[in-house]
Design goal:
It is built from nine helices and eight strands. It has helices at residues 17-28, 35-49, 56-64, 93-103, 109-127, 137-141, 155-167, 172-189, 212-227, and strands at 5-10, 31-34, 68-70, 79-81, 84-85, 129-134, 147-152, 203-206.
């Protein structure tokens, strides 16, 4: 009954999983892990160090030695590599356009997935629980988590949200500018990770018609049911 609470949340781009996961962690006063930030941080590091992203072995070697310090506070999850704060840099178009080639590297994924498992165990033990979010947390990284959720939304809703996040609005031009990043990233990542359909035992939450508060509450309701 007193075991640390592990909440695993997967979902496609723009589903709201990052913002919702942080809000849930804050509400429950537990830790937070952004698994996707690890792939982005590795992408930034490879670009910074001149590592060819098409060289699968070289990128895997970079993953094994990545000097990453990933913040686990849902209030301010900073991302630091080799002493440089890259929290904002990993969300730039340059990194967003390149991260898929790193994320689909099958030599890299097992390396970072083990780091994620270790981090989940550490954070959960230290903070009494953790919300871990990504693309294969519910199925590969933490398949035994007591709470496993696939957070999804329609493509239209996801494009609108990400356009607003990146451009401040969701007019036709902004949505078009965002479409390739969202659709292509999901298409590429789906070749190595299952995050479009809920696996057995994973609870599906569709946020298409929910606002932010409603999405957070939907997750908290699932957690409450599981804990009762």
């Amino acid at each position: 009954m007193n075991a640390p609470l592990v909440i695993a949340i997967d979902g496609p781009s723009g589903s709201g999983k990052s913002s919702v996961s942080k809000a849930v962690a804050r509400s429950l006063q537990i830790g937070y892990l952004d698994a996707g930030a690890m792939y982005r941080a590795l992408t930034w590091w490879c670009l910074d160090q001149g590592v060819d992203l098409d060289d699968r072995e070289a990128v895997a070697a970079a993953a094994r030695s990545l000097p990453l310090d990933l913040g686990t506070s849902p209030q301010d999850p900073r991302v630091v590599v080799n002493g440089t704060d890259i929290t904002a840099a990993i969300r730039t178009t340059e990194v967003s356009s390149a991260v898929s080639s790193v994320a689909v590297n099958t030599l890299v994924r097992p390396i970072l997935q083990q780091v994620q498992r270790d981090q989940i165990a550490l954070i959960a033990q230290r903070d009494g629980g953790v919300v871990a979010e990504g693309r294969d947390i519910t199925t590969v990284v933490a398949p035994d988590a007591p709470v496993r959720i696939l957070l999804t939304a329609s493509e239209e809703a996801r494009l609108r949200r990400r356009s607003t996040e990146l451009h401040g609005h969701a007019d036709a031009q902004a949505v078009a500018a965002t479409r390739d990043q969202i659709v292509r990233r999901d298409r590429d990542d789906s070749t190595v990770s299952q995050f479009t359909q809920a696996a057995d035992g994973v609870i599906l939450i569709d946020t298409s018609e929910l606002d932010f508060a409603g999405s957070v509450q939907a997750v908290l309701d699932v957690v409450a049911r599981v804990r009762d």
